[in-house]
Amino acid sequence: MLKKLTFFVIALCFGFVSLSSGEVHAVTAADWQAGRIIDDALFTDPNSMSAAQIQAFLNSKVGTGGNGRVAGQCDTNGVGTSELGGGTREQYGSAHGNPTPFTCLKDYYEVPKTTPGAGMPASNYGGAAIPAGAESAAQLIWDAAQRYSISPKVLLVTIQKESVGPLTTDDWPFRSQYTYAMGAHCPDSGPGGSANCDPNYAGFSIQISESAALLRYYLDNMTQSWWPYAKPFATNSILWNVSGTGCGAGAVYVQSKATAALYTYTPYQPNQAALNNLYSTGDGCSAYGNRNFWRIYNDWFGSTQFPQPAGGSLLYQASTGIIYLADGLTRYQVPDWDMMINYGLNYYPVQTVPDATIQSLADGGLLTNLIYDNNGVYLVNNRARLPVSQAMCTAWGFSCYDGAKVKPLGATLQTQYLQQGGVLLPLMKANGVLYKLSAGLKQPIANSKTLTDLGLASTLALSSSATNSKQPLGGLLLTTPGVIQFSPDPHIYYFDGTNYVTVGDMEAYADWRLSQATYLSVPVSSFNQTSPSSSPLNSWVISEGKYYIVDQGRKLLIPASLTSLWPNPQFTGPPQMLFDGLPTENLSPLVKAGTAVYLLKSGQKHYVQTIEEYSGLQAIIGGVTGIRPERISSIPQGNDALVDGSLIIIQDGSGVIYVVNNNKLTHIPSPNIFDAYGYIWGAVRSYPTSITTDYPVDGLVLGNNLAPDGTHYVVSGSSLYQLTGPQAGDFGAIDSKFTPISHQAIKRNPLPLSRFLLNTDDGRVYYASGGALHYVSSMAAFLAYGGGRTSRSTVNTNTIQSFIVAQPI
Length: 809
Fold this sequence. Notes:
The chain is α/β, with parallel strands linked by helices. It contains 21 helices and 45 strands. The strands form eleven sheets. It has a five-stranded mixed β-sheet.
């Protein structure tokens, strides 16, 4: 912001004002007070003129600059004689790069330049059509006054003292006179000069708005400790002329913020020579900017001094720097600027008086926001007094019965100066926030629904002054559950109607489906200064004796068999309303965490390596649960998860290959058996001996096998045959001769076993019938039983011994 202070010496520090011989001299040199150029109430009144009144004023002022000009008329075509020589005004303008028509300020329109940038904005100067979006000079002045709460009169006077011409009264202005009309961002340029002006601020509209903005910036910041320029209610050293001229400076006690703002905008005071010739020039050390502002304001609008408040006066004791409100024979010390504003005293000038005057008044102590008369106690708020009931004393935390806190101001101050306010209720609005007062605490009201639920209405709220809104913060009032952000605090919370719960991160936000909850940006409350009233929003929840994981918008019910998986579970009670709104799923032992799949069992997580194993486990378990990886990060890592049919070799040096069969390891005795069951050599994985912890060796050998559904599998060479349960009964299968096997351990589609079996060890042929195998003793028997029409299955003696062998046929 301090870049804004590079303007300070604005044009016309050296005085160039052309006035008609008929100008009324409203003030004399004796009237000048260096510390009281203008009072705050006049300087900061944005409603002192309407846009229409500004326009009428401009209409009346054009052509009043002397030299035979006609008031109210603009010499648009330059027919008059040029005061600067060179024939007519039209001839002079053409010779100096500004041909007619001329456009006077009263007729000037410009498209508002709202941000700095090189170049002049579009306008109707020179007879051009009024551009789209353009505003009149009067409107531009009024807009700036409203935006920055600066009086339009102040802006009009500033145009007159800063511009060449001056522009307000000039009836044949050049286009260049509009470029830096207010001298804003034109340091040390002299009277109307532009040599040092920032081209980004060229244009009448931005000059007006920047001038008002700068003045408002001074007013709002000059009481800060860091402010390096003219300070109000303090003695300042003010130069007589530009630093370095050898003219020196004089001490000035500044009696208003407006006066300090003028000394910041143009940091010089007029010397006696400048005052002795108010409408012309003085000597080499004379400066004219602030003199001209004071004189022009008085000439145009009357006195720059605002009267004292009815029934009292503001006194300044220079020896202590204290301001008092004097009421009759009693003085009350004004504690701070907020109290000045609360009583509306900030609009009035302070009078510097000697210590004797202060000491002659009875000491009434500090001025407070409470006063009383015979009818009771009143709260002073923005220059109004409101009756305070006993209940409101308690609600607002007022000391209504403490003589040091309640002041007996005089009747005139109370009734003629202060306005009578309405009924005081426990509802306050301060800095745009609604509060309910309770036991001296101000509790912010989160939203309109809460206000309605409390049976209140915003129209009942007291628009509180800064003095009356200093109660400590209470708890937020909110009747709508939802996600809360105490702006501008970046943290978010969930409010369930009773408790605030911290939402730790965006994962928790998503897991609890908070995107579907009402979002509320709420005022700061006492909650910001204390810890949340319940535990942070947790993914580990216990509710009605059951354990859950909240994950990705669901609550996953943890089976009893899995609750011991986590070494240090921190299960907490949830915000019940929020928890009840989540859909429930059962946590499967088979979980997908990111791109990895794990089997949860025996207190460990077991990585699933292959798609085949994943599919096998999914078929057994019946489903998989997607879950955030961090949910299982603390579970100890176990061996890989294997399924029946997985092939492994144990790193014990034996070289034995096993197949997982019924969750145990069954020895595969030969390559023929390996091939017969459809195994692939590339699928064999090597594991340390620790794998047997989860999958012990069963001591069996893979060969002829029996499945749980009664299907018998017979191996012959590299071929695999099968007998269903009914067939096995016809063959006379001896179950004890078959090794148990799961269907998942079989990877090949087996062949059907023929009723005729050829034992390749001895060449004998057997026929299966009636619950046994029968040796076929002759070709005639073979043919008689259909041997010529049926193929034979080749087996070995070991397979023959797996069946009952009965009498030959």
